[in-house]
Write a structure and sequence with these properties.
The complex is a heterodimer of chains A (66) and B (271). Chain A is built from 1 helix and 5 strands. Chain A is mostly beta strands and 66 residues long. Chain A has one domain: Beta-grasp domain (Ubiquitin-like (UB roll), Roll), CATH 3.10.20. Chain A is globular, with a radius of gyration of 11 Å. With 271 residues, chain B is of the alpha/beta class. Classes of the chains: A mainly beta (66), B alpha/beta (271). The A-B interface holds A 6-7, 25-28, 30-35, 38, 40, 42-43, 58-66 and B 26-30, 36, 49-57, 59, 62-64, 74-77, 79, 85, 89-90, 92-98, 104, 106, 213. β5 of chain A pairs antiparallel with β4 of chain B, so a sheet runs across the interface. Chain A: This is Sulfur carrier protein. Chain A: InterPro entries: Beta-grasp_dom_sf (IPR012675), Mopterin_synth/thiamin_S_b (IPR016155), Thi_S (IPR010035), ThiS/MoaD-like (IPR003749).
Chain lengths: 66, 271
Amino acid sequence: MRVTVNGRPRELPEGTTVAAVVAAVTEAAAGVAVAVNDEVVSRGAWDATTVRDLDRVEVLTAVQGG
Amino acid sequence: MRVTDTTADDPLVIAGETFGSRLIMGTGGAPSMRVLEEALTASGTELTTVAMRRVDPSARGSVLDVLGRCGIRVLPNTAGCFTAGEAVLTAKLAREALGTAWVKLEVIADEHTLLPDPIELVEAAEQLVDDGFTVLPYTNDDPVLARRLEQIGCAAVMPLGSPIGSGLGIRNPHNIELIVERAGVPVILDAGLGTASDAALAMELGCDAVLLATAVTRAQSPATMAAAMRHAVEAGRLARLAGRIPRRRLAQASSPWEGIGTGSDGVTSAE
C-alpha cells in the first residue's frame, strides 16, 4: 500500500503500525508527535494503530523557531 | 512601593505560573546550537519558544536538549500556519510531543508581512481555549482585537511592535499603551524589536514582558545582545514601576532660584 510520510510516498506492507512508521523516520524517542490524516495519534496508541492505503502521516518534532 | 530586585520581588505571572524573568526568548535564527545556548543563558529567560516541523533524520542535536540543559520551560508556537485549522492541529501535535498545553498561537496572513490574520486567529484561539490550552496569541497592535482575545479566554495577549524580524521596534506605542490600559491579562510585546532600547520602551509603556528572537539570534554577538536585552527589560520594568515624570513643553529648573549670588537682584539664571 502507498502511504505518504512527511510529504514523501512510501510503499509499506499491510498492517504497518504508526510506531513502525515513526521508527522508520526518526530514532528520537521523545519530543515527537504524529498525525494521520490531520488527526493526532497519541503516543499510547502508536502500537495499536495501523496505517491504511493513501493515509497521510506527519511525524513532527520541535525545532528552532519563534 | 519598594522595588530593589525585579527578579526577586516582581515576578511575571501567566495563567498562575510564575516567572522570575520578563524576557521570553525565541530560538529561531541562531547560527548554531552552541551560540543559541550561550545567548539563552545570557538572557536569563525562563520561557522560550520552539516551532513544530517534520522530523529531519539528518538533524544534529535538538533545541529541546539545549532548553533542557538550561532549565528553560518550552513554549511551542504555531509558526507557519495560515488557517485556524492548521494552527489548532499544530498546537495539538505540540501538546502531544512536548507535554505542555501552553501554546504561542500564530496564524499569519501572508509570507510577505507575517502579520496575524485576525479572523483565523480568533477562530483558532476559541477552539484551543475550549480544548483546555493556555493560549498566548501573537496579535496585531489592535486594542479591539486584543480585548476580544482576552474575552475568549487567552492567558495573555502578545501584540507586535512591528513585523516579525524587522527590527523596526515599536511603531505604534500609543496602541500598545491602549492595550495595556485595558488588559486584564499580561501584555507581552512580541515581534519587531531590534535593540535594547526597544525592549526598555516596551516595558516603560507598561507591557508585562517582551518576547524576542531575531534581535538576539541575528545580532553580531547574540550572547552580548541577550545580556543587553535582559538589562533593558529589567530597567524598563523598574522605570514603569517608578513612575516617570510628566512631559513638559518648557524647562523646569532643577536648581533653586533663591539665593543666587550673582546679579543685582539675585536672579540671573538657573540650571
